[in-house]
Amino acid sequence: MKHCIKLFAVVTVFCLIFISGCSKQQTTSSEEYEVTDYQGTVVHFKEKPKRIVTTTKGTDTIVLGLVKPDKMIACDRNLDDPNSSNMLELVKGIPNRVHLPKLEELIVLQPDLVIAADWGDLDYVQSLRDMGINVVVIHGAKNLTDVKENIILISAALGEPDKGQQLISMMEERLNALKEKVDRLVPQDQRQRAVLISRVAYYGGKDCIYDDACQWAGVINGLSEAGLHRGTKLTKEMIVKIDPDVLFLPSYSVRGLADKQSFRDNYINDPSLQHVKAIKSGKVREPRDAYIYSASQDFCFGAQEIAYCTYGDEFKQDDQQHLSVAE
Fold first, then answer.
1. Confidence (pLDDT) at 30
2. Is residue 84 located within the same domain as residue 137?
3. Which of 42, 168, 222, 277 has the greatest number of beta carbons closer than 10 A?
4. Which of 108, 126, 159 is the last residue of a domain?
């Protein structure tokens, strides 16, 4: 494994001599441990962090699956948005909101741990470390394997490695149950082809979390099948060529700033797309973005959401689902 994780404990015993001539021994424990992050930097912890900040919504979600919200000093502002959050109630007690925070914002928050994804601007990382703030860099997840590795690394950084394994086991149990249900209810020759039209530029093809989720859902990802990779722009001509059975449009409205109806009309009312099967049959769906973009343990809910939007109520799930082993 790319990430080397080491955990060790140091127990120190102090003897206190009382004036009365009686001696009494008091023992205290202090746990110290080290974690090697994705970039190979060894990060030393004198104790478990209590003022955690992460720089992405996905890493917030992982942390909130491992520890209680009172261990976080801030979370992503989108976790307050009902169109993009599956943890509305859980984050209410977290005092601050950030979005792709810069160095100055992080300093003000006075964190004892910052978890940063490697796809962002990391110029601030060394500055924080020079100030004595622990920073753990993780890999921007492109698939389920990356998600699992990030859970392992983050749980180690929190001093909770066993909980990381528990969380992965919970996710895998749900995914296996979903796959078993899909295999039972949807024969291979009835598997449907879907195309995701995303507000996230160039998303939905190979090397995306969504592509892995489609496989667990028993849905053919039309973009991946057509050879489109992450970073390739989806055109309307490609949609016609793929001719999907179901079309996924975004439920996210960019915190109310985007016109969802205009975005929708641009596709379903376009004359050039009227012969596409999904539009002819009216099978245009809006899967909950809070689920299908999840680069965390909640990936399992994203897979089920895709199955639900494709195959119907047999796969229906409640809103605000979140996996956690926090105690």
1. 62
2. yes
3. 222
4. 159
